[in-house]
Amino acid sequence: MKLLTYLEKEKDGKDLVALYSKVDAYDSEEKAIKKRLENLKFEKEVFQSMEHTMSSLLLKIGEMGINYPISANTYKKELLEEAILNKYIELIDVQQENLTTTKRWFKDQQKNPLFLKLMDSVNKF
Hints:
Number of strands: 0
Radius of gyration: 22 Å
Oligomer: single chain
Distance between the termini: 12 Å
Strand content: under 5%
């Protein structure tokens, strides 16, 4: 709170506080994305290292919300495992893209004079 009060007293104080809040939110989001990404990669690795029964695979497909048509032709362990792995890959790719977007926002902000002033003010504080 002291930092926000300090920033408010600076020239462009309200803009600095608003930008600080946005930076803080993006920072929190980046940490959350990294954690989700780490968890998904770990889950995928664990999944790949285990032997599965048909019932555990069907349960996993349901848990992951995979729309998988079950028929005599698709009711094979290998196909179910492949569908689950593909879903993990898709989820990891989405989180990776989210992380890239967040990092791009931070990089873009480094050209913003207000952002530079904010970083200078935070360092002075």
